[in-house]
């Protein structure tokens, strides 16, 4: 059986606001997404796909490791975690099995990206650069078009960002399907229209890769997966553990295996993508992965999840903790700090127009109270988003209340549901562990005693039977080798450094997965990486 190629098309900060989700997810009817709708018609749409966290880096860490963030220490937004030694980025398994792996270009996995994770992790990475036409590939393109920051560009910059949109593709703010938790003001209407415009722009971008597959004659041999990592960048979306923060689009096309035009309503977690891709490509799924494949090699849907679990922890300087579980109908949220606002002040989002607008309206209500007037600027639901506190527990019936407007946690009629979901959440936490319950300073001290990264031991290299054999004494270390001499290292820029992109020194590191025939070069260098540790020193082996 020919080994399939895999193409991942990933975007930022959207819910299932695509045309193919019309009637399934509220507001999808506003979307203009012909290319992704066509992909959906040719593949399978997953109606209930969920992120592990409502913010980028923790969510991506789950997707790329197949492990829950709270279990491996990647739950806080902006951290450099030290996962258990068995944990690595799953693309390394593809690389070891012979796939050409690329990432263009965003990483943000909460760990420094090791040189062994991808054949190419750069802005020019592409399957077209693979060594031979017969080499299978796993190519990922991570788009920034829909990132929350783009909603709030100035008019000139936004026009340039969406320059290819036709007039009929642009969205009228007056028609924006505002959810009930957002006030009906020009600021929110413009934000929603721009959000939808960016999704259409992203649709064009995604279509470019689908066209390139066709041009290269690869469409029939390639599994295409489209996903986003968490919800939209407005209040009560990104950073909140509601549907609007965690429910995601997921489309899979696999020609000749998955019948086109299907919809699946079972619960899928995005972190299940890692073991699923390994399973369908015939690569063993590591035992340490907590996620489970949802497809087998024949395209059959495997046993469904009864629940999707998730939560949020520190968001930059915003310290808060919640855990959540969702079954096919209900979402239960446990707020561990009910005395804290769900919309605490936070340096980055505070400057975003929708955050500022909601705070402005809330301030007007404060003026009303001071004047002895009844508040009437915000609804109680809108007020709850920016309120100084929140309930200790929340429960919502998603069938009857898709926007989660009515909290049923204190409703006696739902006591049995509440108890069942409480026990499900407790059982999950007991099973996987919860490092989010440790004081973060204590956790960091465990990872980095006295503030120092632990080093990865240098590889030991020997020649056995004419082949190069390398080992490393650091548990969980991955080994790479190169014949490229060290050049001037170009440090990662501020953003790239923050999200864990590797420094660029122009060297291509091959993954060491077994004894290597000596290359024709005069010298070869070996290096070891362990997630959360400093890379090892290079070990040079002179061949001639």
Automatic annotation (TrEMBL):
Residues 4-283 form the Sulfatase N-terminal domain. SUPFAM superfamilies: Alkaline phosphatase-like. It comes from the Bacteria. It is an enzyme of class 3 (hydrolase). Its EC number is 3.1.6.-. GO terms for molecular function: arylsulfatase activity. CDD domains: SGSH. Keywords: Hydrolase. Belongs to the sulfatase family. This is Putative sulfatase. It comes from Modestobacter marinus.
């Amino acid at each position: 059986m020919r080994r399939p190629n895999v193409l991942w098309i990933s975007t930022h900060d959207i819910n299932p606001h695509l045309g193919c989700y019309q009637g399934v997810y509220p507001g999808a009817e506003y979307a203009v997404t012909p290319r992704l709708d066509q992909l959906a018609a040719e593949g399978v749409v997953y109606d209930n796909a969920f992120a592990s966290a409502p913010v980028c880096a923790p969510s991506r860490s789950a997707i790329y490791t197949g492990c829950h963030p709270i279990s491996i220490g990647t739950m806080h937004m902006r951290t450099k975690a030290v996962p258990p030694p068995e944990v690595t980025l799953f693309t390394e398994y593809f690389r070891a099995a012979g796939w050409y792996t690329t990432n263009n270009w965003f990483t943000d996995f909460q760990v420094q990206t090791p040189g062994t994770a991808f054949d190419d992790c750069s802005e020019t990475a592409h399957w077209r650069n693979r060594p031979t036409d017969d080499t299978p590939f796993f190519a990922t393109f991570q788009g920034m078009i829909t990132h929350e920051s783009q909603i709030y560009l100035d008019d000139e910059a936004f026009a340039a960002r969406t320059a290819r949109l036709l007039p009929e593709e642009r969205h009228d703010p007056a028609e924006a399907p505002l959810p009930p938790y957002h006030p009906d003001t020009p600021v929110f209407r413009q934000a929603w229209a721009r959000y939808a415009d960016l999704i259409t722009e992203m649709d064009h971008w995604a279509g470019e890769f689908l066209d390139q597959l066709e041009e290269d004659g690869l469409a029939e041999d390639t599994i295409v997966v489209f996903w986003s990592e968490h919800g939209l960048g407005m209040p009560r979306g990104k950073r909140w553990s509601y549907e609007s923060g965690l429910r995601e689009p997921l489309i899979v096309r696999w020609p000749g295996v998955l019948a086109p035009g299907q919809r699946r309503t079972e619960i899928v977690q995005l972190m299940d993508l890692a073991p699923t891709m390994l399973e369908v490509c015939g690569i063993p799924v590591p035992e340490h992965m907590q996620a489970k494949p949802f497809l087998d090699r024949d395209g059959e849907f495997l046993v469904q999840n009864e629940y999707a679990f998730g939560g949020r922890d520190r968001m930059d300087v915003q310290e808060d903790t919640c855990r959540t579980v969702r079954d096919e109908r209900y979402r239960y949220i446990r707020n561990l700090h009910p005395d804290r606002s769900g919309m605490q002040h936070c340096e980055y989002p505070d400057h975003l127009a929708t955050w500022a607008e909601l705070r402005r309206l809330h301030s007007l209500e404060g003026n009303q109270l001071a004047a002895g007037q009844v508040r009437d600027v915000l609804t109680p639901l809108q007020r709850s988003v920016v309120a100084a506190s929140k309930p200790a527990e929340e429960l919502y019936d998603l069938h009857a209340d898709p926007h989660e407007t009515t909290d049923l946690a204190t409703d006696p009629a739902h006591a049995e549901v509440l108890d069942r979901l409480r026990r499900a959440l407790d059982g999950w936490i007991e099973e996987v562990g919860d490092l989010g319950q440790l004081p973060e300073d204590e956790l960091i001290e465990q990872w980095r005693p006295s503030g120092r990264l632990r080093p990865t031991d240098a590889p030991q290299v020997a020649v056995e039977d004419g082949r190069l054999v390398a080992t490393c004494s650091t548990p969980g270390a991955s080994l790479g080798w190169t014949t490229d001499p060290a050049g001037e290292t170009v440090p990662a820029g501020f953003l790239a450094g923050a999200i864990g992109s590797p420094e660029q020194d122009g060297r291509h590191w091959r993954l060491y997965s077994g004894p290597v025939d000596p290359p024709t070069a005069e010298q070869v260098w070996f290096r070891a990486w362990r997630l959360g540790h400093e890379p090892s020193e290079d070990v040079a082996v002179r061949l001639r």
